[in-house]
Amino acid sequence: MSQTLIGPKATPRPRVITTEPRFTDKVFRVVVTSGGMISLVLLGLIGFFLVFNGFEAMRNAGLSFLTGFDWVDAIPEENQPASYGIGAMLYGTMVTGILAMIMGVPVAVGTALFLSYYAPEWLKKPMVVVVDVMAAIPSIVYGLWGYFVLMPHAEYWAKLIHKYFGFIPFFDMPAPVFTRSPFIAGLVLAIMITPIVTAIAREVFAQTPLERIQAAYALGATKWSMIKAVVIPYGRGGVIGGAMLGLGRALGETVAVYTVLNLVYDIRIEILLSAGGSVASMIVNKFGEADPVELQALMAAGFVLFLVTLAVNFLANTIINKTARE
Amino acid sequence: MSNQTDSNSGNSRETNRGANMSKVTGKPVDKAAIRGASSSPVSSHSLADVANARASKLGAPTTGSTGLEAKNIHAWFGKKHVLEDISMDFFSGTVTALIGPSGCGKSTFIRILNRMHEFIPTAALAGQVILDGKDVYEPGVDVTKIRLRVGMVFQKPNPFPSMTIKENVLSGLRLAQIKIENEAELLESCLRRAGLWDEVKDRLDEYGGALSGGQQQRLCIARSLAVNPQVLLMDEPCSALDPGSTLRIEETIRELSASISIVIVTHNMQQAARVSDYTGFFLSDGGPGRLIESATTTEIFTNPKQKRTEDYVSGRFG
Questions:
Q1: Chain B residues in contact with chain A using a Cβ-Cβ cutoff of 8 Å
Q2: Is A122's Cβ below 8 Å from some Cβ in B?
C-alpha cells in the first residue's frame, strides 16, 4: 500500500468512450437525417435552378440589374437592346414589406396580448380559431377583397393622411391618384401577416413563467405594468422572430399585391401615390408573355428575391438568438 | 384561539421587538417558557428548547393592535373545499409560522391574505381578510394597493431575469408607478435589511440571475421591501435553499420582524421554532384543511392543547 503512494503516479490517458446504438436507433437516425437533408437539398436545388437560368441575364446586365429602373425588351427594328433592371421593384418590395410590418405587427402583438391576458374565456377560443383561419385564406382572396372592399375605404384614409400630413414627403401627392398605391398594398399585406405574427406572439407570451408574473403582481403591479416588466421582455425575441417571418411572407407575396398595386418602374418615396413595385408581382405580371431572353431576366429577379428572403430569415434568427442569450 | 385573547391584553403597536429586546433582562419570564422548562409533555425536547430559547431571548411575544386578520376563511378550487373556517390574527411586529403536512392548505391560506388566490382559475373563497380595519375583498378595493401593503416571497426565488440587481430591487416602484426622491438610499437600505448589501454592493448592475439561489431569494426579499409593506408573506422561502442560505434568511427574518409582521409557511419545524412568535398548525383529514391549533410558538412546541398538534410537532406523523 505505502509503496503506491510514493512517487508521482502516471496520469492516465483519457479513455475513448463510444456507444454502439441499437438497430432501431440507427434506422430512426437515417429517417430523420434524410428528412432534414431533403429540405436543405431542395433549397440548394432551387437556388441552383434560379442561378443556372438567370445567370446569362445577370451577366449581361451586371450591377445595373440591381440598380436599374428599366424593364425594356429588345426592339430589333429600332436597334434597341433589351435592358432589365429590378431596382425599382426591389425598392417597392421593401417599401410594401416595411409598411406591412409597421401596420401589422402592432396589431398582431396587441391581439396576442389581448388573447393571452384580457380576453374573457368564452371569447378566447373562438377568437384563436378565427385568427388561425385568417392565415389559411388564399392570397388571391385577400387580393380580390382588398381590391373591391378595402380599396375604396383605404383611398379615403389615404386622402385624409395626405390632407393632414401632406407636408411629410412620404405623404406628398404629385398627382391625385390614390388607388393601387404602396400604402394599400402594405395594408393588405399587413392583414395577411397579422395571423402568423399573432399566433407566434401568443405562443411566446403564453410561455411566460407564471412565477415571474406572480412576482410582479405580488409587488403591486397593475396588469399593464406586469406585461411591460415581465411578458414583453420575455417574449421580445419570439415576437421579433414572428415579425420577421411575417416580413418574409410579405416580401414574397405575389398575387394579392399584384391585384392591389400599380406596378411602375420608378423609385418614388410617395407611398400614397398609385405607383409602386414588387419583384414577385412583376414576375407574375411578365411571366406569361416573356420571350426566352426576358425569361432569363425573370429567373434572375427570382434569384434576387430568394436571396433577400433568405437574408431576412437569417437576420431574424440572429436577432432571436441574441435576445435569447440576453 | 389563544391568539385572540393575547391581542386584547394589548400593548400598543409601538411596543415593537426592538424595544423589547432592550428590556429582556428585566422582564419576567414568559409563562409558557416556564411550562416548557418544567414539564415538557412533548417528546421532541429539542424543538421545545429551540422555541423556548427564542422566547426567553426576546421576552414575551409582542402583542398589539391587529394589523391583519383573517375571519372565517373558506376556500374552494372548483368544487373542492380546501380550507374550512380559518380565523387568525397576525399581530404587528411578530412572526407567525404556519406548519402542517403538505396539502393542508397553508399556501392557499397565505395567498388569500394578499389576494393572489384569485389568479388561479376556479378559485373561490368566503370570509374576510381585514387589513387595518378594512376587508380587502370588498368591492371597489384597489387590489394593487393591497399587494403593496402585504408583500410576498415565493418558494422558488424568482428575480426578474431581464433586470439587473438594482433594477430588481426597485422594480416594485416601477410596477406600481411610485415615484421616490432618493433611489440609491432606498436601494441600499432594502439590500441591507435583506442581508445582501455586502455581497452585491459592487455588482449592482449585474443581472439578478447571476446570484446564487440563496442570494436570489434575499434579492426577492429586498425587492418586496422596497415598496414598504407592513406585512410580508413567505411561502416556504427556504425550501429550495441549502442550509447555509437558510440560516442567513432566518437571520434576515428575525431582523425584519422588528419593523414589519411576517407570516411564514414552512415544512421545517426547526425553522418555525427558531424564527416565529406564533404558530398555527394546519391539518386536513382528507377533507378541507383546518386550523387545528394556533398559539405562541413556545406553547405549540412545549404544551400543545391538541393531541394532533402534539403528534405532528413530535414527528409522529406528517
A1: 114, 116, 119, 144-145, 147-148, 151-152, 154, 156, 158-163, 171-172, 174-177, 220, 223-224, 227
A2: no
From the CA of A175, how many Å to the nearest CA of chain B? 50
CB spacing of A219 vs B148 below 8 angstroms: yes
- Residue B14 exposure: Cα atoms within 13 Å on the Cβ side: 0
The CB density around residue B250, as the number of other CB atoms within 10 Å, is 20
CA distance A183 to A233: 31
Show pLDDT as tens, one digit a residue, over chain B (318 residues).
444 444 444 444 444 443 443 333 333 444 444 343 434 344 445 677 777 766 543 434 444 445 889 999 999 999 999 999 999 988 888 899 999 998 889 999 999 999 999 888 889 999 999 998 889 999 999 999 999 999 999 999 999 988 999 999 999 998 888 888 888 999 999 998 888 899 999 999 999 888 998 899 999 999 999 998 999 999 999 988 888 888 888 988 988 888 889 999 998 888 999 999 999 999 988 889 999 999 899 899 988 898 889 888 888 765
Strand B231-235 to B261-265 pairing: parallel
Contact B144 A230 (CB under 8 A): no
pTM as predicted: 0.77
From the list B161, B162, B227, the residue facing A219 with the nearest CB is B227
Class of domain B2-313: alpha beta
What CATH fold (topology level) applies to the domain A87-325? MetI-like fold (1.10.3720)
Domains of chain B, by residue range, sit at 2-313
Give residue limits of the domains in chain A.
23-78, 87-325
